[in-house]
Amino acid sequence: MQRRLIVTGLCALxxxxxxxxxxxxxxxxxxxxxxxxxxxxxxxxxxxxQSPFIRARYTTLERKKEFLDNLVRFxxxxxxxxxxxxxxxxxxQMTLKKIMVQKLVxxxxxxxxxxKNLPEPExxxxxxxxxxxxxxxxxxxxxxxxxxxxxGSPERxxxxxxxxxALAKIKAEEKKNALAFNQxxxxxxxxAATKSAGGDLQFKSHEELSQAFSKELADAAFALQAxxxxxxxxxxxxxxxLKLTAQQEELNRSFDQVKTQIANKLYRxxxxxxxxxxxxxxxxxxxxxVDEKALEAIEVSAAAAPAGMPGAPGGMGGHGAMxxxxxxxxxxxxxAPAK
Length: 339
What we know:
Elements: H1 2-17, E1 29-33, E2 36-39, H2 40-48, H3 52-55, H4 61-83, H5 90-109, H6 120-129, E3 135-136, E4 139-147, H7 156-173, H8 180-188, H9 192-195, E5 200-205, H10 206-212, H11 215-222, E6 233-234, E7 239-248, E8 251-252, H12 255-286, H13 292-296
């Protein structure tokens, strides 16, 4: 098992870090030995693959030596693995296949430079057709205690007095009882649809509140501060106490602000479609036949596979999965910071 972990790791590192066939290394040689040569350009390329935070550790000669030792360690281990014939190991071959597939997809379908060449009218059309993605009025989320008492109804005065009493009770208790408003909803609210949800009206814009209730209620709601409880709001339909529980600020993004984002989205969609068509063509050319009887006879264990066992090639999920898949970051791990 340990051997499998080692060889598959070395295989991944060899693809990501090792020189390609017939590739001549450039730059001054910083370390060399029997079959091992590391140049300044190679050193810098490996270091540039690390995050800026990691790179910042390797500015002194001593720390550069540490990183170089990591590269040397990798090279001698890879050389020894090759001597022992591990290039033909099934685990290594499977890992090579996975990485080659990811590299192939990345090379052909991950480049977003083409997004810069999409015609602006196409981007503008998408923007115009999806305005709701870039424009949204301010919205508030409210909890409400509701009394169904239309203006002029006999019970209006009685329910107004009840609403004022409920408000006084909330004001007296809410500083020491965070659930005071919810309890008032449970005790007083006459709206069955919202009462079971603690009076929640969901997020609504000023226009939506005006249409659903009244302009008076919408104005009062948008005047509230976060967590604030309103006074008694009288509308033609009834009486209300409101509490502002959350709010979403207005979204207003111009075409110029989102043009690059739209271009990247459309280009990714285009490349994904190209990938699906390309993959279908490759499968058709391969003329794959499936023996369903043999497939059905395969026994599948519910137990987890041991670590290090070869599995299904990564990034080979549903449509569109591979164009966005990134190859593994298989670089020598930097040494721990010196104490």
